[in-house]
Specification:
With about 190 residues, the protein is of the alpha+beta class. Helix content is about 30%, strand content about 30%. It comes from Rhodococcus wratislaviensis NBRC 100605.
Length: about 190
C-alpha cells in the first residue's frame, strides 16, 4: 500500500468508526447488517484496508450516511473548485476509477468515472434519490432495473430513479469517461 492509499485507508477507517459510534452500533451489529465479516470491518476501521466502493456503500447505509460523506468528512462550503487534474480518486473496480468532482458534503454528488474496456460497476446498487449520467468519451451500457438496458455514446445522457437497482458496464473496446451525479449523495 503506497502512502496515498495508506492515508486514505486511515481517513476512511476513522470516519467509519466515528459514524458507527455515533449510531450506537458495535462492529458485530454492522457486520450482521452488512453481511461483511467483523474482522474485515475491524481492519477497515483500523486503516489496514480500504473497502471496495460497494462495501463502503453497504456500511454507509447501515450507519445512516453515504460513502461520499465517509470519504470526504468535510464541512459544507458554498463553493467547491476541483481542477481537471485534481480531485480525490478511488478505485471502483478493476479498470475503473472514480474522481470526486466536488469537495465537502453536498446536496448532490458529481463524480467522473474513467472505465477501461471490460470494466463494470460490480453488482447492482440501489439507494434513495435520483442519478444522472453524461457520457464524455466512449460508450457504456447501463442497466436500470431487471429489463431495461441502455447503450450510451458520447454526449448521451440518462436520468433514472436510484431506488431501482442499477449498474454500468464498459463493453466497448475503448476506454469510456462519464459523469455520474447523484442526489442526494449516495456514494
Amino acid at each position: 500500500m503506497d502512502e496515498d492509499q495508506r492515508l486514505l485507508a486511515v481517513a476512511i477507517g476513522t470516519a467509519i468508526r466515528s459514524a458507527r459510534r455515533d449510531a450506537g452500533l458495535t462492529l458485530r451489529d454492522v457486520a450482521a447488517k452488512t453481511g461483511l465479516s467483523q474482522p474485515f470491518l475491524s481492519q477497515a476501521e483500523n486503516g489496514h484496508s480500504v473497502p471496495s466502493v460497494m462495501n463502503l456503500h453497504r456500511v454507509a447505509q447501515v450507519l445512516g450516511t453515504t460513502a461520499h460523506a465517509l470519504l470526504e468528512q468535510g464541512a459544507r462550503t458554498p463553493t467547491s473548485l476541483v481542477r481537471s487534474r485534481e480531485g480525490r480518486r478511488f478505485a471502483l473496480s478493476d479498470g475503473a476509477v472514480l474522481r470526486f468532482c466536488s469537495t465537502g458534503v453536498r446536496a448532490m454528488e458529481p463524480n467522473e468515472v474513467t472505465a477501461q474496456p471490460g470494466s463494470q460497476a460490480g453488482e447492482h446498487t440501489e439507494h434513495a434519490g435520483e442519478e444522472f449520467i453524461y457520457v464524455i468519451d466512449g460508450s457504456i451500457r447501463v442497466e436500470v432495473g431487471v429489463e431495461e438496458s441502455y447503450v450510451l455514446d458520447r454526449g448521451d445522457t440518462l436520468y433514472y430513479p436510484a431506488t431501482v437497482p442499477h449498474r454500468w458496464f464498459n463493453d466497448a473496446a475503448e476506454p469510456a469517461r462519464f459523469l455520474i451525479t447523484s442526489t442526494p449523495p449516495s456514494f
